[in-house]
Amino acid sequence: MARTHDAQSTLRVLTTHAEAILDAHLNQGNRIPATDDNVGMLETLEHHRLIWRLAEDEDPQLKKVLAHFLDHITESDRRRQASEHVDQLWSELNQLFVEYRETKRLAAFEDRERVEGTIKEVLSEIIEDIRTATVTFSAYITSGFSYITDIELRIRKNEEVIDQARRLSNLFDSFKIRELEDQAGNDPFLKRLLLKHLPATLEEGRRNLSYALNQLRILLVRMREDQRLSKLIGGFESHYANNRGFEPSIDDLDLAYCPPVLNTVAPFRIVSYGDIYDPADDQDLIDIAQWARPLDAQVDEPGIDAKAVSSVEFDVDGETEQEEVDPVDDLVEQLLRHLLDGDVCDGEIRALEVLANSDLDLDAATWLHTLESEIDALAPNDYDLIEVGYQSEPDPLYPDNLYILDMILRRRGDSRL
Amino acid sequence: MQSNPLFEQTVTALLGGRIICEYSCSDLYNYLSLPNHQQQVADFLQQMNRTLRQTSSQDAWLCAYNELNAPEAKAAVRQQFRDATTHLEALVQFLRLHMMVEASQRPIAPGEEVREGHLLERISSAPSLEAKLRSLTTKQPFKTTRTDSAGQIRMVMTRLVEDGYLKQVGTSGSVYQATAKWSWLYDLMTFIKTHEGIRDDSDEEDSQMRLA
Question: Cα B212 from chain centroid?
Fold first, then answer.
């Protein structure tokens, strides 16, 4: 009698605190926060052995048996929350199972075939729904939500998707193999559908979903870090703008404890020299020495162009070496200087005429190409003053291609004055 | 005893103050990925009052003092901090410019590719970005007398390569990869933010919203 009384009392406690217990199960991961408001309830639940806790400072947790019970009674609700459509299909399917058994009992073969077809259709729709739902998450991961430019909105979307994935995971958990076995009974047709096809899809869905959840969480962590760094850089930018000449300082720290990020070493250069005291290294050092200072040694060697080598002299203080002037560059420079600063007036200068009157032995193509490159390299102001015309003729076969025969240079109206 | 070139290179790089990451020196980073190699390097460094450290994001290795009791070590830490923060304003400006060019709210991350041509294309087409680049190249270490955007960008890239923030990749000479030295800089900035009481961007916005 006492046992019955205790059980009734426990059930009454469950009814009294149903809301808080359900909230703990559905939203708090079976934990009930140990707040001042909950003290009375927690004492009652503890008295009825419905909660447990490891340490005094930890939130109490619902006992496993109670969690299982709640799992059972909230299955339909969890399924509905996770996916209204799948839940609707599942209800429809349950109705069809009843009909199917009835048609079998009445030996209504035609109706049985019809119901079989409908069951297949609804079940394939459920399987398709489960697959589509998990594929959607892969698309989110691939895109990395990059189509949303604002990082705050991107983070929010990521959190929403994680929530969706969690709900879908709840849905998958709500399909219990034992429940499916009960539905299938001894019917081979139902057994094949419910114990083979649906569990396989569920398993695949679970696997994909757990991968997706993991990736989405990694993505979220990265986005939050990006957001933190973005704010950090923005903060520094504003600080520098508002505090001209700001220089961070750690002069106020005694460095008795040094934050790890500050602890960087002064560069310690490792320089090594050959060991001139070790006879074992003699030969190597001799080779290196010969390679390092070949000048004097090579000048006397027969077959080496001594003139070429001896023409290189080291500078002494105050002495400069004259760089040899390229005659082509020199001619181009004279020509351009004449064009820019000389007396050309409205006249024109033909590039090939200039080449012919010089004593340069250069082919026309190289000359024209060099001249064009030098003109292109002029400062914008000077470049604008020179007008370049091309004397050309089209290729007989491909008339769009032109052969350049000469360049005609003119000076534009002198805008510099 | 046989010499170990990878050990030698790793220790030389760490003592020289280099930050070793997957992108700056992959062979040394791979060498350090094995715990027994880490131990060998750490044991060697310990004899020189130094130790092996990682950035908070665990993507780079660097050398730190084991004990900071010696005045020389403290002085070196202070000097390193001064050296690192002398050019901080310019680096912050570069990071902001890069974020604007990429129209992204995330700063450069280790391993990210930076293309000089892409930067030039975006900056040349937006006068506001050109102005930012001009302002950036008036500050050390990016200071240059070049007046064209291409020359200014080249200067910025060259200095970032010299300072170990970027590494040239490929043969074109205009494609770079960010190294994990940025992670170290972000760690340093996080410390300075707390130490100097610098407020985040959003904090300022919030206070302005409250004032409004």
Answer: 38
